[in-house]
Amino acid sequence: MKLAVIGGDGTGPEVVAEALKSLEALSKRFDFELAYDELDYNGTRYLQTQQLLSDDELEALKTYDAILLGAIGHTDVKPGILEKDILLKMRFGLDQYINLRPIKLYDSVDSPLKHANSATLDYVVVRENTGGLYTGVGSFEAKGTGDEVAIQQMIYTRQQVERCIRFAFDYALSRHQNDVWRGLSEADKEAGYVAQLTLCGKTNVLTYVFDLWERVFEEVAKDYPTVKTNYVHVDAVCIYMVDDPGRFDVIVTSNMFGDIITDLGAITQGGLGVAPGANINPEGVSMFEPIGGTAPDFTGKNQINPMAAIGAVQLLLSHLGYLDAASCLENAIKVVIKKMDSQLAAKMGFSTTEIGDLVVQEIMT
Ligand code: IPM
Ligand code: MN
Q1: Which residue in 262, 277, 280 sits closest to 168, CA to CA?
Q2: 0.90 exceeded by pTM
Q3: How many domains does the chain fold into?
Q4: Minimum CA distance residue for ligand 1 atom 4
């Protein structure tokens, strides 16, 4: 396994170091070779050299099996620069058109949802990752004047929508290879359904873009007769994510809505400290990251929870087909998470590095 490791800024390098510790332990236990290059594509390098992510560097990333990323963002750099020309450049340039974000509550993790448990909070958001409002297309007119107009366009091609929706259907099926989604009614099960896919949109207002999404969703659904489908507006999705998350199995949505609802989802699963995500190009190089940011207030304090980065390694392993190592790591995460439940490792009496050590210990026993 050959990885590109981009620690990034803030607490990124700290959490990635713990993630690498568990990966190294797994490579010993499951006997696979692990090699990685640590790359300094981050805000600090930008401040020193004005370099972001060059086209050559982007090309070179294509030679790895996968990318492990910490977080990118720097308090001394204006918001938007590093995001656009490092993080989004990787997502777009490597055509990682899926952002997969599992929302899963592990036992004993403290959720702000008082009724949620590991049986009722377990779904996955498939966020489209290359289009929509993220394309950066827009303009100012009469900038700075009283008549100013700012335009930001939500752009989707049918191809972008279709490949994302197909991925979501396939993913819903693969998630239930050995079981049937527990939210289905008896009648649904008898009808032969095994999984559910929800389209999250805003067809009542965004009448062009989500009209396209809905039409493509309905067309593609015909190829997946065992997946039950439904449509929910994004605002209602937010209500259900809090009030009744057990109704969701897999949700597919646009880039911007996916960004927003997965932060909400992360908080319900115990916070950004435990929430990982995968930027997937099914035919190319994928990138795995904690969904949280650089947490500047905690940088260098050995206090940040590395569990989301360790969870990103689990997603990486299952994506690359190292299934035994992935399930070993998931068990280790479950055991260690039982001993802590907060975004801040230190609050529970553990440091960042101690949590990494506990996971390694669990892997090796
Ligand atoms: C995320 C982040 C990014 C996004 C930012 C940093 C550009 O919030 O990964 O969710 O909006 O996609
Ligand atoms: Mn986000």
Answers
A1: 280
A2: yes
A3: 2
A4: 259
Strand (E) or helix (H) holding 239: helix 234-243
Q: Are 239 and 268 in contact (CB under 8 A)?
A: no
Rounded CA-CA distance 311/330 in Å is 8
Residue 67 lies in a domain: yes
Q: Are residues 256 and 293 in the same domain?
A: no
Span 226-254, pLDDT tens digits? 999 999 999 999 999 999 999 999 999 99
**CATH number of the domain to which 116 belongs:** 3.40.718.10
Domain span including residue 90:
1-97+275-365
Total number of residues shown for the chain: 365
Atom of ligand 1 nearest to the CA of 73: 6
Do residue 118 and residue 255 come from a single domain? yes
Does ligand 1 have an atom closer than 6 angstroms to the CB of 38? no
277 Cα nearest atom in ligand 1 = 9
The ligand placed nearest to the CA atom of residue 255 is 1
**Mean pLDDT, range 268-291, rounded to an integer:** 94
Hey, whose CA ends up nearest to atom 7 of ligand 1?
83
Are residues 117 and 253 located together in one domain of the fold?
yes
Q: Are residues 154 and 185 in the same domain?
A: yes
Nearest to 250 by CA among 181, 308, 203, 327: 181
**How far is the centre of ligand 1, averaged over its atoms, from the C-alpha of 61 (Å)?**
20
The SS3 call for residue 37 is strand
For residues 52 and 129, membership in a common domain is answered with: no
87 lines ligand 1 (CB under 6 A): yes
